[in-house]
Write a structure and sequence with these properties.
Blueprint lengths: L8 E12 L3 E2 L5 E2 L1 E2 L4 E4 L1 H15 L17 H8 L8 H11 L1 H6 E5 L15 E5 L2 E3 L2 E3 L5 E12 L5 E22 L1 H7 L3 H17 L8 E10 L13 E4 L10 E4 L1 H9 L3 E7 L5 E2 L2 H5 L5
Parallel strand pairs: 14-16
Antiparallel strand pairs: 1-11, 1-12, 2-3, 4-5, 5-9, 6-7, 8-11, 9-11, 10-11, 12-15, 13-14
């Protein structure tokens, strides 16, 4: 695996969701997650990581790009681990950590609690316990909409199946969606944790690719009509700025918002802050239809090829 030279960085990621359910709440009839005090649409970091993992699993097949938490057959974490590595590696916990991170790209990115097989737990190391805790160098906050979101009135959906006796059976459920949500995520990359997790620059390029392509390519019936609009990943030796969403302003052209033409983004404050801190953009993407003031400023501080 290539030498590690991943730098500290931050991520800003915006995507649109039209007539879809960005992240259903299983404890609330799978309604879109909402802050009803502000009419803000919420999306968990787990949902975003699921998109990334699924994309990488479908896109990558080399040995070093295995996905630990994958969308294959239902199995335990131990069974998944034993598919890829031998329990002999757990005789030395430090070597086991390196072997595991080198095998699973999602562990290198997001970390994991990795179970230790009992017969492999002979190291005698303090704290080895029943699992190895690997803290991921790439972490995301919960996403939220930059606009106030209106919910589409639910309607019933019916699916028909035949029973084993040949009788037709109908299943009725509710379909909940948002009209339009401009969802923003903030992320952080830790260089010190990257070293411990064996995260590489090549991995970061795979992450960039997934951030831009995963959501539309992994669409399901409830997730169709979602599209990335803006992505930037910074690299810096001058510390972290903080939540980059706080530096983005939205101006509404047509209320209520129903599509990308109904608003304008202003990132002047963000660009000027990055410039003042001498922070470079390692990777960026702006959708061609997004009305974004000073989007050319991204190119001026970008190391992106």
């Amino acid at each position: 695996m290539e030498n590690n030279n991943v730098k500290d960085g931050e991520i800003l990621f915006l995507y649109e969701a039209k007539l879809t359910n960005p992240n259903g709440d299983i404890d609330d009839e799978n309604r879109p997650r909402m802050d009803y005090d502000t009419f803000t649409n919420l999306v968990s970091d787990v949902r975003l990581k699921r998109y990334i993992r699924d994309y990488l699993q479908d896109d990558l097949s080399e040995d070093k790009y295995n996905i630990f938490i994958n969308h294959g057959d239902v199995q335990t974490a131990k069974d998944r681990l034993m598919e890829i590595v031998s329990d002999d590696i757990f005789k030395d916990i430090k070597k086991a950590r390196d072997a595991i991170t080198q095998k699973f790209i999602d562990i290198r990115m997001f970390g994991a609690m990795v179970p230790i097989p009992k017969k492999g737990n002979n190291s005698g190391e303090s704290g080895s316990g029943d699992s190895i805790k690997i803290i991921g160098p790439v972490q995301f906050s919960w996403g939220y909409s930059l606009n106030k979101v209106q919910l589409l009135n639910s309607y019933s959906i019916t699916s028909g199946f035949s029973s084993s006796e040949g009788n037709k059976m109908n299943s009725i459920g509710k379909d909940y969606r948002v009209y339009y949500s401009l969802i923003g995520f903030y992320g952080v990359i830790s260089s010190s944790r990257a070293k411990k997790a064996n995260l590489t620059s090549e991995d970061m390029r795979k992450l960039d690719d997934a951030m831009i392509k995963a959501i539309p390519s992994q669409a399901t019936r409830s997730k169709i009509n979602q599209m990335p609009l803006l992505y930037m990943r910074t690299e810096s030796e001058n510390g972290f700025i903080g939540d980059l969403r706080d530096y983005v302003k939205i101006s509404i052209k047509s209320d209520p918002i129903r599509n990308i033409n109904d608003y304008k983004l202003d990132i002047n404050d963000l660009i000027s802050t990055l410039k003042s801190r001498d922070i470079k953009i390692a990777k960026s993407f702006v959708h061609e239809k997004l009305d974004c003031e000073n989007k050319d400023g991204i190119k001026n501080i970008s190391n992106d090829d």
